[in-house]
Design goal:
The protein is mainly α. 45% of the residues lie in helices and 9% in strands. The chain has a two-stranded antiparallel sheet.
Length: 211
């Protein structure tokens, strides 16, 4: 969530970044990436590198007079962005890649996901939704078993059944026994028909030369 900068009864809060859009853009100018680390939308800012120090001024401030509290609050945000930009520029090309720019390093293109990996270690945590190239964790329980894995599990089931004196070769009777054991000993209910269909596949698994 974008930060709010309160002053008296006035709270200046630039519009939040539309990360749903930026994650599809992928690349932007360095100064825009820095603004995004604060959770603000870069398009509401204007970049002014003409002065001795590079200034970024929120366009929404331009309607305020200097003596206005919201205007002064905005200057605090300008300072924060400037400080972050100085740090980012000193690490550009070293900690993250940048493209060529005919204007300045601040205007050089950066990959948002790569920049984000570096920025996360400098200004943690980054705003929720900041573009990332991390692959979401996969729930292994939702992945279909490969043939070799399925065969191995069936062989394990056969071995355990044999140790427990359960005749898996008679799937109907064995399934009933296993279902009752699962219910009474483990507190888990599983249909005997489901177990029976699994047991019927053991013969084929045992016939495979490389389970």
């Amino acid at each position: 969530m974008a930060a709010s900068y309160p002053v008296g009864r006035v709270a200046f809060s630039p519009p939040p970044a539309k990360f749903s859009v930026w994650k599809n853009v992928g690349r932007c100018e360095l100064w825009e990436a820095v603004v995004l680390t604060l959770g603000h939308e870069p398009r509401f800012f204007e970049f002014h590198p003409e002065s001795g120090r590079e200034l970024i001024v929120a366009a929404i401030h331009l309607a305020f007079m200097p003596e206005n509290a919201a205007y002064q609050t905005g200057l605090e945000l300008v300072d924060e962005i400037h400080d972050r930009l100085v740090v980012a520029k000193s690490n550009a090309g070293k900690k993250f890649k940048i493209g060529e720019s005919y204007r300045s390093v601040s205007h050089a293109a950066v990959d948002l996901a790569e920049f984000g990996r570096w920025a996360e270690g400098v200004w943690p945590p980054l705003p929720p939704g900041f573009p990332s190239d991390e692959v979401p964790p996969v729930d292994a329980t939702q992945m279909p078993l490969a043939t070799k894995e399925r065969t191995s599990l069936l062989v394990v089931i056969a071995a355990l059944a044999k140790r427990a004196d359960i005749a898996w070769e008679q799937p109907t009777m064995a399934a009933k026994t296993i279902a009752e054991t699962a219910r009474d000993e483990l507190g888990v209910r599983i249909g005997a028909r489901t177990i029976e269909e699994i047991l019927k596949k053991i013969d084929e698994a045992l016939d495979r030369k490389d389970p």
